[in-house]
Amino acid sequence: MHLLIGLGNPEKKHRFNRHNIGFLIVDKIAQEFQFPPFRNRFKGLISENFVDGSNIKLLKPSTYMNNSGESIIQAIRFFKLVPSQIFVFYDDLDLSPGKCRIQLGGGTGGHNGLRNIEKHIGPDYWRVRIGIGHPGRKELVLAHVLNDFSEQEKNGWVETMLDSMTEHLNLLIKGDTNSLMSKIASTIHLSNEASNVFKD
To answer: Where are the domains of the chain?
Structure first.
C-alpha cells in the first residue's frame, strides 16, 4: 500500500498556482489511472485504486498548505501506514522548472508544508520535489509561488512533466526512483529542445 500526497491550497483560484504542482500531479494520476471521484475524508480529498497491482491511495489535504500534516496524520493512523509508505509531491524553488528530485527523508528546505508534515509524522517519508524555479529575489517569492503558471509553462514543461510522471509511475511504486528521475529529466530535455527548434 502506498499513500501519494499532493500539496497545495484547496480554493479554485489556486488551482494552477506554482505552489499547487502537487495537486496537479495527483489529479493527473487519478485521471490517467481512472481513479473513482475524490471524496471528503481526513480533512482532505481522497481516492483509492490499484495501479500495477499495488494499492494506491491519493490524498489532497484541504487544510491549506501550511497545515497539511493535520490531514496526513489522520490518513496514516487510519490506514496504519509507516512514513516510508508515503510519497509527498510538492514545489521546490531551488530546482529549475521541471526538474525532479526524489529522496527518503531530509530537511524542509524552508517549505511551510513540509515543516507542518514533519511536526506531525517526522522526517522519514518520501519527498518528490518538482522544480518551479526561483524568481531571483526573496521579496518576489510569495508572488511567484501563488501566481499561476504561464500558458507557455502549462503547455510546455508542466504538461510534459505530468505526462512523464504518470507514464512511469510504476517506477515510483517499485522504488526505482533513480530511473524515474532520469526518465523525467530526459523527457523535459527533449521537450525543451523541440521548443527551441520550433522557435528557430
So the answer is: 2-149
- Known catalytic residue: 2? no
Class of domain 2-149 as given by CATH: alpha beta
Catalytic member of 2, 14, 19, 120: 19
pLDDT tens, position by position, for the chain (200 residues)? 999 999 999 999 999 999 999 999 999 999 999 999 999 999 999 999 999 899 999 999 999 999 999 999 999 999 999 988 999 999 999 999 999 999 999 888 889 899 999 999 999 999 999 999 999 999 999 999 999 999 999 999 999 999 999 999 999 999 999 999 999 999 887 766 555 533 43
Does the predicted TM-score (pTM) go above 0.85?
A: yes
Nearest Cα neighbor of 101 from 15, 185, 13, 194 is 185
- Which set of grid coordinates corresponds to residue 127? 519527498
Taking the C-alpha atoms of residue 3 and residue 17, their distance in angstroms, rounded to an integer, is 23
